[in-house]
Write a structure and sequence with these properties.
By secondary structure, chain A is mostly helical. Chain A has 16 helices and two strands. Chain A has a single domain, classed as Farnesyl Diphosphate Synthase. At the A-B interface, helix 4, helix 6 and helix 7 of A face helix 4, helix 6 and helix 7 of B.
Chain lengths: 340, 340
């Protein structure tokens, strides 16, 4: 089935509207919260003055607009979906930085380091509540259903992060467990982003599910790429120190694959992860080499290719309007070559 | 107008159902989250075994059930409202303890001290999402409207806590500013609790508003009483050290009233609050005496009486079924004599 699309719908124009709606909604939150949310998102300075920048890549709202447009959603529905997923993303980042003690975000000091952890947490709460409100107020008979999808996504996100936390205490994480964790931590919100506009539009279940599966695979490819960059990324581009994830003994995808590979190299890597003491400047490159020798990098690259191909397959099954489908495909194809 | 009540509706029976529904819903959350939520609420031990205890006073869900019953809500609606407000309350307490670094809650170690701050925060997120989901899934054509009321309440709560945080940096907080803060931090959720069942039942606006105003006044009386107990409460009953709020230089109601009273005693109290150094064992009782001499205690007691009377006035205007109205009145009347 080919979906008809309102000819006037222009995803780029709608996406500019999302950026405006995000700012308008944030400004209507209470003053302390607005200042922090605007700073975190990049369009306010620490002092609350307008800053150059804003939404960043805004992958999630871009997906919401494209997915919505593909499924026949109105501009208003696309905007509501875009704002909601961007808010949930910011909710999660603000809180992550507090939980992990990360002091930098998007090349600026993390919000909690500027405004304090309690204020950053309260801002994250307000954004989560506002995300659900924006959807409930969307002009669609499916607004309540879309909100339920969003809330379920928040719980999936929590589940993923809970699993990620539990990994810190374990050395026996399997690749399957890693993928289940990433499906929650990262892919759930990307999947929700791609399909939420379709839910609001009341699109047929096969369209909603197809877009959601596209998003799940895109999200997994995205997280796996992030994990590659966390070890072998260019520090100038990623804004993280070289080999950052190994220094923190993070159980990212290449490490999990390497630890599960068997053999002597895997045992040596395991020793580095088991020993709670500090790592020397020669330890960390040695760990990176071991991960490569155990084919942890290869496994991750192959897995990215697999999920990218799967995302494209999900799209092609949907027969979406050609131009939107092309943009969604381009997003998936660009993930493996991400550099930041 | 007198509201008819389904004769079969028994608030005590429904409230037992809320307790069961809270546990059933928590158990359906992901395992890590369930264990922490159940421990925090008191019905699981640290190891996840059944514990004696549970919901505690459960003031908020009791109000939700009574308010709902008074406004003609079905049992299912009362239960949904009760579970939702109890979850929002737990969300807020779990997060508060992390933000304030409080190590004890309900006479047990605070959840974050047992499970870690990140896990406690993730549990609070899951409870907030689940609260909105429970309402959206309620069997009522007004489910979406009730969810919007709940989400607005969450934002009011955040606003109140943001103001409370800002008070820490200020010595010029006025009693009016204090009351506006308490209206958000404490009264918003109690007001929502009292009126949410009526919203689900599609009760007339005057009933919803009357119950909400009853709740706002009850909530203010509740917070003001809490502030009295924070200085003059019995440590055995409150579980907090004697004069706890003065030791922490908290700007609670009696202190704000005292600081605003003018005169030499107020200036001396101000000096204690201005000086960032540690307080001696003679300083703290001196501060308590100064608060009394500045009529800070008197002002708070009078204000509690005022809001209690106002809560009762709101009720009497509604002509609710007599037995439910009597219970709601009893709750309001019991606040000024709270000892814990």
């Amino acid at each position: 089935m080919t979906l008809a699309r309102t000819p006037a719908l222009d995803p780029r124009g709608i996406h500019a509207e999302v950026a405006r709606a995000v700012q308008d909604t944030v400004i209507r939150l209470c003053p302390g919260v607005s200042a922090i949310a605007g700073y975190h998102a990049g369009w306010l300075t620490e002092e609350g003055a307008p800053a150059v920048g804003g939404l960043g890549k805004a992958l999630r709202s871009r997906l919401a607009v494209l997915g919505g447009a593909a499924a026949g959603a109105s501009t208003g529905m696309c905007v509501a979906a875009g704002v909601a997923v961007e808010f949930v993303h910011d909710f999660s980042l603000l809180q992550d930085d507090v939980m992990d003690g990360d002091t930098e975000r998007r090349h600026r000091p993390a919000a909690w380091t500027v405004f304090g952890a309690p204020a950053a947490l309260l801002t994250s709460d307000a954004l989560l509540a506002a995300a659900a409100e924006v959807l409930l107020e969307a002009d669609s008979p499916h607004a309540a259903c879309a909100t339920r999808v969003l809330l379920k996504t928040v719980r999936a996100l929590v589940l993923g992060q809970t699993r990620d936390l539990a990994f810190e205490q374990r050395l026996d994480v399997t690749p399957e467990e890693y993928l289940a964790m990433a499906a929650g931590k990262t892919a759930a919100l990307i999947s929700c982003s791609a399909s939420l506009g379709a839910v609001l539009a009341g699109a047929p279940t096969e369209v909603v599910m197809g877009l959601a599966e596209y998003g799940t695979n895109l999200g997994l490819a995205f997280q796996l790429t992030d994990d590659l960059l966390g070890i072998w990324g260019d520090a100038q581009l990623t804004g993280k120190p070289v080999l950052a994830d190994l220094r923190r003994r993070k159980k990212s995808a290449p490490v999990v694959a390497a630890l599960n590979s068997g053999g002597l190299h895997a045992l040596e890597l395991r020793d580095f992860y088991e020993d709670p003491g500090p790592l020397s400047e020669t330890d960390v490159p040695r760990m990176a080499l071991l991960v490569e020798q155990c084919h942890g990098r290869r496994w991750t690259i192959d897995r990215i290719a697999l999920h990218t191909a799967e995302a494209l397959r999900c799209l092609s099954g949907l027969r979406l309007p050609q131009d939107v489908a092309a943009e969604l495909a381009e997003i998936a194809q660009s993930v493996p070559s991400r550099r930041k």
